[in-house]
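#lab-general

N.A. 3:47 PM
ok so I finally got the sequence cleaned up, no stray characters, all 232 residues accounted for. can someone with queue access submit it? mine expired

B.Y. 3:52 PM
send it over

N.A. 3:53 PM
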Amino acid sequence: MKKMFLLLFVVLFTTNIYAQQNAFQVIHVKAEENSQDNIAELFDNFFGAKKMKEGNAVALERIWMGGPKDMTHRVVFLWPLGGQGFEEGEITPAENRAFWSELINRVEAWGPSHAGRFINFIEGDIEVNPYVQIWDIIPEDPESFKKAQLELVNSLPDVFKGRFVGFGTYDINRPDGATHWALVSGKNVDDHLSFVTELQTKHSKKFMKYIEDRGGVELISNFTFENLRFIR
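B.Y. 4:20 PM
back already:
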């Protein structure tokens, strides 16, 4: 069985909620068997040793359930719009080529790539809650979804304490037609299931209000991953 290894999508900004000024690009890959540690070291050595522009980041994740067929990893770049990349003079073209050449040697197949923006992003504790669940969706009213998500989180601070919560767009190469994504983090799979149970039972009125206020939502897909690295 192929080892799963993936770069994604959780960025630790200095304030709680960001509007559509921050962006991401995700590239799905299928890693060679037993290559996880080598790829992690490659990213540590390359990105950890170079100074990126303010707000830029990469995150290393491992997919557990769902995601594009046969893909085991994804490489995700995060940046503020208009400020992508490394500081001037940090990398040479030769260093950049060498990095991608080494990565290619550890990748069995390349999958789809997507890009989009953040609408909501509420920071959590990546060490306590490293497992993230993402829903690829088509909301009928994105503005209502945005407001309802924030209202639910703010109304239950103890329930959402330490969890990443987010909502954003897919703008380029939308996965299976999904226009948006939403996410929440947790400790593990059991914690995610317990979290939903708590919302539906102990906080059913607030949860049902959230469902009503956010409007209709078409679910396209759903997957989980574990954060392994975060570099900025």
